[in-house]
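Progress report, Aim 2. The chain analyzed during this reporting quarter is listed below.
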Amino acid sequence: MVDNLSVLIVGSGAREHAISQAYEKSRHIDRIIVAPGNDFIAYNRKKEVIIDKNCNLKKPESFLEIAKKYEPDLIDVAQDDALAGGTVDMLQAKGFQVFGPTKAAARIEWDKRWSREFMVRHGILHAPFKAFDSEEPAKEFVNKMYAETPDKVLYVKASGLCAGKGALKARNLDEAIGCIEKMKTFGEAGKVFLVEEGLIGEEFSYYAISDGKACYTFKSAQDNKTVFNFDGGDQTGGMGAVCPAKITEPISTLIESQQIETAVTGMKAEGAPYVGILYLGGISAGGQPINIEYNARWGDPECQAVLPSLETDYVEMVLACLDGQLEKMKIQQDTKSRVCVVGASRGYPDDYSAVKGKRIYGLKKAMEVEGVTVFGAGINVCNGKFYANGGRLFSVVGEGNDVIEARQKAYSAIAHISIEGNNLHYRTDIGWRDVERTLKELE
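Predicted structure tokens for the chain:
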């Protein structure tokens, strides 16, 4: 395999920082470009890392200009808006070697109605749902649902992309009506929406890499979506994750065969072979893995907890996918546990504008904690100092022999960090379910 390669990563957050680290570990890579990236991704790196902000994730043509500028050997399109916009298709048509699903394959994420209908066609277990393109029929539907079952839990979900915030939970009729009315605030993404029955169980995340024929599944994870402890508050892009997730141990074989392999086979059968990273968000209900959603790329913050476990050269895996030779790869992951805690601006996911530009202290101290990695998201770096520039600012990942050790390291590190004016927010309960399970096993 050729060495001295350069890679362009399309995306901006802590996920892209983690992906860039995976590429940096490869002996084949000399230079990494991240667009638009963020300042912290390039901070204190072992190899050359370039951040180019002269692009727009919703404008594929802006990445063509960047690709022409740097002429990378490989392009990894890691962000959902870019995938939905057909960035992979456009760059491939211009002769670049690109990793990521085409627009047609990425539809499994950017069109939730289509995705649910795909599950129906291929017998993939999912929550009962009904799709709507106007409010009144949806309101009539939920009125009927709650007349029959007053304490039913429903989810109202925008069919399009909403940065992880388009799934709204309703516990009664008034909340369901409010969720339906809120769909219009998502603009084009909420013009079509789903009403789904809520399932009782524990959620999990799974990721697989696919060459369109074969696939390899990474260690499981569990995301924490809401802003406050113990699943309270509004939906966010994700406030933390644990890897591996113990809830998946009894059903891992079913997850891989019924939910992941069936999806890859189904996409190929429908003329849109899936080449890239496939995400399964699921729930364990009644001993069965039930599909919540598919995404067409690594998730944030799970990527920061899952991808560092990979011991196999990531470049070799990606190129094997592009050559349709993934099944020939011998892939290994370590046996460590990881806990990721997301640091956010106070006020996130609502108004956090007052935090922008405020100084972040203690990041260097956190990075010095053994067994800890800090991935940057909304951080500006100026003269070696760090400033808040977003909602989710960074991910602190601790690793250990079990979830208890990993969690202790993550929280020991984040304890060093603050934002002027007491403006740092993070959940203090990440990993609590698996900590309890581990302690019971040790009794």
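The chain has 14 helices and 25 strands. The chain has a mean pLDDT of 97. These observations will guide the mutagenesis work planned for the next reporting period.
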